[in-house]
Design goal:
With 208 residues, this protein is mostly helical. Helices cover 68% and strands 0% of the residues. The chain has 2 domains: 19-67, Homeodomain-like (Arc Repressor Mutant, subunit A, Orthogonal Bundle), CATH 1.10.10.60; 82-201, Tetracycline Repressor, domain 2 (Orthogonal Bundle), CATH 1.10.357.10. The two termini are 23 Å apart. Residues 1-20 are annotated as: Disordered.
Length: 208
Amino acid sequence: MADENPDQGSAPGTVRPGGRTARVRSAVLDAAGDALAEQGFAALDLGDIAQRAGVGKTTVYRRWGSPTALVADLLLDMAEQSAPRTDTGSLLEDLRANARLVQGTLSDARQGPLFKAVIAAATCDARTAAALHRFYETRVGEWAGCVEQAVQRGELPSDTDPHEVVRAVSAPLYYRLLTTGAPLDEAAADRAAEAAVAAARSGAYVRR
């Protein structure tokens, strides 16, 4: 995913600033994340966010303008702040690290509800959906390098789609989060990675 705003162009909240403006942005995005985790997207209110962040309401309205633009900026910041991928020299170990990162995020007391709220919002708001899609494309693109290296080492068929392999790692974890309510543990993460690697080695993700 390119670092661009879902609405295209230079909409508010899309340029990474410095100095005091950076501190304001950080405080507002933290407050927005807390509010999403606690109340969901439907209750997101810029005035409440300003109060939580300890900044002027006018500042928040001028910079972001709408809850949707604020969520888009939050997702952009989350993508930028996410941990870099590992490089162990082993596809299974790399993807196990990826799965455990996803598992740790989704089982976190704050991050899990936050992602649920954003995913729910994306089902009925096109701008939020676009921002969420770009967030995941950024993260999948980051970790696709693990699969590309595995192809170069001869671990996988030459025409394997790296992005599909990475998506296959996190898909069962999100499914479990959203449909079962069962706890996400490291064993679930490891199974997801092992299943994705086995499928990739069998040629399941070869481009057709």
